[in-house]
């Protein structure tokens, strides 16, 4: 079962283009680790970079050398063909990871696999030459399928001879299974060991490991793999959970153990962390190394990790108590970052230098928007700037709310105020219950905050235990809270100012200025005050009346800004916020090579640039960032050179600023180099390429210019349809209050 070196080189060529900018240096760590040996934990790439490419494919294995630590081991699940050739696949059922059902539609069979009747396509039914026409496909449906059908199955010896990695891990999922076919996995492994030296050989079967012990190279570590605790180990007929209590026995035939990560760090039924188990210390006391498996950035992580896979890895290697001896991951870039650049950090260090970490509705990835808990978390997590988007209540109180529609961030939908909702086309095309429909007391006493779930369509929700935690904050509360905190400043966002002036009779600009004056912000310099708006008219008015830093938010995705538009922006703003896609355009979640010069043009004109909105959930990120929020931040900082990031998860961005690789210059390790836009896209065959994205428009002066804000009207004489709706809401509010009063009297 062979492929020419020409085929291999063809696949390599676009991959090299992908990462031309990457270096090859590794970050060095001089500290002693809490592993058994005292050395840094090993990084093992499960099936190569299988989080992106089909598991055990050419690209998956090749990509590891570009996007991981240079000492990363390549991992191969070994299966035998009918003619005793070892191949690498993630699953015994080939239909799950190859197109074999299309090539051999009648090849389905049913076999007994360790006591379980299993139906599918099995390697034992095919000769290696049969499989030369069977292509791989992505085995995880949520991962990109653009590489399906482009790469052949990889022979196990190919991992040694073609990729020449620093280490190889051969995992033998089944041994006794092959006896019924007169095949011997033991013979295959011993034969291969005469030609190549595997650094690790693992298996969940005791008899297999004992049968090869002493017969392979002394450099090869034998590792006993634990499956689910209730599963039965076929050699001893004991459960793996019971065997975990007898590690001294395991030590007689293995030098290490491989366990699912939940053996070490279990979770509750609702997916929150429980205390660590003693299994790492137990293994080390028995003289066994312990490796943790099951790391994948696009899995559902414990809510304690805030959708940050780097935080998860660090909890296994840098928790102050123990470190596992190795990590097996589908995304080896993340353990590379953790071990190479993010251990032993001083998380209490505050550095308000660029890039600024600016919260979005507080730490809204962990708590409901704009609540006291969200702001406390943002400060504790190291945000440089915390933000307040200002809305107004019926009684004229400026409040911090992520949306003017209470349906978006409160429990109003389940409250007496839910109906009748009103449609105000100036604000939204759908019915809503707006902040100005209720008094501040209505909101505080009858509603609860509700955490935002921007990726709920993918069944990804945020911190359910705290979905209603915290208290609403008036602008005055926010200013009082922020004033004595170690912050570079605050950002106040003002939208819908013209609507408030004309339809509500409320001057939001004047109200914000007064609140800042009353809180003493206008007379201090310790924290800068930033005012952000998508409306130039708002910023013009603030510039006329204050000396605060004004941030123009470009709402549209644009490729660049015309010189005249930049000149106009400079008349009223001192910085600009731009969307992520205006910096790195995408097509079907791949970065494109479309050139966007927006950041450079703005910075050349003396305007700092902040990028919004960064989220940790992997579905919000292009594939080029490897489902890793840290990799995404790194690209915007190192490649785009933005001056700040606006994020729902300020803790992730703050930790990025502390990483020990940030000042390494030309010696920066490859896994901390930003991806080349369009590089990953270029590896997809032309026939499978997603449609090209249309060029983004240019920001022009007409996009920026606006009429001045209208004067504040007297709403007591207004009779527009929207005000009829507002009065209707007021009547309902009064009715609800009366009903509640009557109920209390009856009680």
UniProtKB/TrEMBL annotation:
PANTHER family: GLYCEROPHOSPHODIESTER PHOSPHODIESTERASE (PTHR43620:SF40), GLYCEROPHOSPHORYL DIESTER PHOSPHODIESTERASE (PTHR43620)
Keywords: Glycerol metabolism, Glycoprotein, Hydrolase, Signal
Originating species: Eragrostis curvula
Pfam families, per the entry: GDPD (PF03009)
Enzymatic reactions: a sn-glycero-3-phosphodiester + H2O = an alcohol + sn-glycerol 3-phosphate + H(+)
Enzyme class: hydrolase
InterPro entries hit by this protein: GP_PDE_dom (IPR030395), PLC-like_Pdiesterase_TIM-brl (IPR017946)
Highest taxon above the source species: Eukaryota
Listed GO MF terms: glycerophosphodiester phosphodiesterase activity
EC number: 3.1.4.46
Residue ranges of every copy of the GP-PDE domain listed in the record: 41-339, 355-657
Keyword Nucleotidyltransferase included in the entry's annotation: no
Signal sequence residues: 1-27
UniProt record, GO biological process: glycerol metabolic process; lipid metabolic process
Keyword Signal: yes
Region called Disordered, residue ranges: 675-695
Entry protein name: glycerophosphodiester phosphodiesterase
């Amino acid at each position: 079962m062979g492929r020419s070196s020409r085929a291999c080189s063809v696949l390599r060529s676009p991959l090299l283009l992908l990462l031309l900018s990457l270096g090859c240096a590794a970050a060095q760590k001089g500290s002693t680790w809490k592993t058994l040996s005292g050395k840094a934990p090993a990084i093992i790439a499960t099936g190569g970079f299988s989080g992106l490419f089909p598991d055990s494919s050419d690209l998956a294995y090749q990509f590891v050398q570009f996007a991981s630590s240079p000492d990363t081991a390549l991992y191969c699940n070994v299966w035998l063909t009918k003619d005793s050739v070892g191949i690498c696949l993630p699953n015994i059922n080939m239909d799950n990871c190859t197109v074999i059902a299309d090539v051999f539609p009648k090849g389905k069979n049913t076999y007994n696999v360790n006591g379980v009747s299993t139906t599918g396509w099995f390697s034992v039914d095919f000769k290696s030459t049969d499989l030369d026409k069977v292509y791989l496909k992505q085995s995880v449906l949520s991962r990109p399928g653009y590489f399906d059908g482009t790469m052949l199955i990889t022979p196990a010896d190919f991992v040694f001879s073609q990729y020449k990695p620093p280490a190889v891990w051969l995992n033998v999922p089944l041994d006794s299974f092959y006896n019924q076919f007169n095949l011997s996995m033991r013979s295959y492994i011993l034969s291969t060991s005469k030609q190549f030296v595997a650094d690790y050989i693992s298996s969940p079967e005791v008899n297999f490991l004992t049968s090869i012990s002493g017969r392979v190279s002394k450099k090869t570590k034998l590792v006993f793999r634990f499956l689910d605790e209730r599963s039965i180990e076929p050699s001893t007929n004991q459960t793996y959970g019971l065997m975990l209590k007898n590690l001294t026995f395991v030590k007689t035939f293995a030098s290490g153990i491989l366990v699912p990560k939940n053996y070490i760090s279990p979770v509750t039924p609702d997916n929150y962390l429980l205390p660590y188990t003693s299994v790492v210390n137990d293994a080390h006391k028995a003289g066994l190394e312990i490796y943790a498996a099951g790391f994948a950035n696009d899995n559902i992580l414990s809510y304690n990790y805030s959708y940050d896979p780097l935080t998860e890895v660090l909890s296994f290697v840098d928790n102050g108590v123990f470190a596992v001896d190795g990590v097996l991951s589908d995304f080896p870039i993340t353990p590379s970052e953790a071990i190479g650049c993010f251990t032993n950090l001083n998380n209490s260090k505050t550095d308000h230098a660029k890039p600024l970490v600016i919260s979005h509705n507080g730490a809204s990835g962990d708590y409901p928007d704009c609540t006291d808990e969200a702001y406390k978390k943002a400060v504790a997590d190291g945000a440089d700037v915390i933000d307040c988007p200002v809305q107004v209540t019926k009684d004229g109180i400026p409040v911090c709310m992520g949306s003017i529609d209470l349906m978006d961030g409160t429990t109003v939908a389940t409250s007496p105020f839910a109906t009748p909702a009103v449609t105000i086309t100036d604000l939204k095309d759908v019915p809503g219950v707006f902040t100005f429909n209720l008094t501040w007391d209505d909101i505080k006493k009858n509603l609860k905050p509700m955490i935002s779930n921007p990726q709920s369509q993918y069944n990804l929700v945020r911190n359910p235990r705290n979905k209603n935690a915290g208290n609403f904050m008036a602008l005055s509360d926010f200013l009082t809270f922020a004033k004595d905190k170690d912050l570079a400043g605050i950002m106040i966002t003002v939208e819908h100012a013209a609507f408030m002036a004309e339809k509500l009779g409320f001057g939001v600009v004047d109200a914000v200025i007064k609140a800042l004056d009353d809180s003493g912000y206008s007379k201090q310099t310790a924290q800068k005050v930033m005012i952000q708006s998508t409306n130039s008219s708002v910023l013009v008015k603030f510039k006329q009346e204050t000396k605060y830093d004004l941030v123009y938010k470009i709402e549209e995705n644009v490729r660049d800004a015309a010189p005249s538009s930049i000149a106009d922006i400079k008349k009223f703003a001192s910085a600009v916020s731009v969307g992520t896609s205006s910096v790195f355009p995408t097509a079907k979640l791949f970065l494109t090579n479309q050139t966007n010069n927006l950041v450079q043009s703005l910075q050349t004109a003396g305007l700092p640039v902040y990028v919004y909105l960064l989220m940790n959930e992997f579905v919000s990120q292009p594939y080029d960032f490897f489902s890793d929020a840290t990799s995404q931040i790194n690209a915007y900082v190192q490649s785009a050179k933005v001056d700040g990031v606006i994020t729902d998860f300020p803790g992730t961005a703050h930790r990025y600023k502390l990483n020990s690789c940030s000042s390494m210059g030309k010696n920066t390790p490859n896994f901390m180099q930003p991806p080349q836009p369009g590089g990953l896209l270029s590896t997809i065959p032309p026939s499978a390429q997603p449609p090209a994205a249309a060029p983004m428009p240019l920001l022009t002066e007409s996009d920026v210019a606006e009429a001045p804000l209208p004067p504040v009207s007297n709403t007591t004489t207004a009779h527009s349809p929207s005000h009829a709706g507002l009065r209707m809401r007021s009547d309902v509010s009064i009715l609800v209050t009366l009903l509640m009063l009557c109920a209390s009297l009856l009680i």
